[in-house]
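Q: Could you predict the 3D structure of HAD family phosphatase?
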Amino acid sequence: MDGVILDSEKLYVRFWCEAGRFYGFPMEEKHALSIRSMARPLASAKLKGIFGNGFDYEAVRSKRVELMDNYVEKNGIEVKSGAKELLSFLKENGYKVALATATPPQRAERYLKAHDLYKYFDVTVSASMVSVGKPAPDIYLKAAEMLGLSPQNCVALEDSPNGIKSASSAGCVTVMVPDLDKPSNDIIPLLHGVADGLSDVKRILRELEDCNIQ
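A: Sure. Here are the predicted structure tokens for HAD family phosphatase:
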């Protein structure tokens, strides 16, 4: 959802940095980017590895949530260009559609309903519903199971390295839709392709038709 459907990753980065600095940690954009889509225990360990064991992940995260909620309440979250058109295309053409997100389910539902997008998803899977979040494969395995499909017959759209690792290790046909960064050298081998925005995803789907990807 974040960074693919909603233009929210820039907000997470901004408010992670502000929350970290609020508690005296010199958090920068690169630190916030490194934990995008990452499961909370792994994100906590990563940030403690950067800032030391004194880094209170839960306190900083709570402050980030507070700051971002206040911003979203006043300003909302923008939808990524082409999101509604792609979701409508998928439903009209018989694709099953799952949301696999690190965002808590109630929050994801609220954000998507605000833009009338929630109705396009057959199932939603949040990190709270699996044992281990991204970059582990669990969330994509669960999404495929709930759709009644094998992961190999699922196309995963991702923008973050942790999400790409999760989808690829689950066996999905993984496509990057770049948001805040481009595919790095270690990510490129995990990708079936890179879409030039959501409007370009239809091209990739057409190319996959002969492979019976539904």
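Q: Anything worth pointing out?
A: The mean pLDDT is 94.
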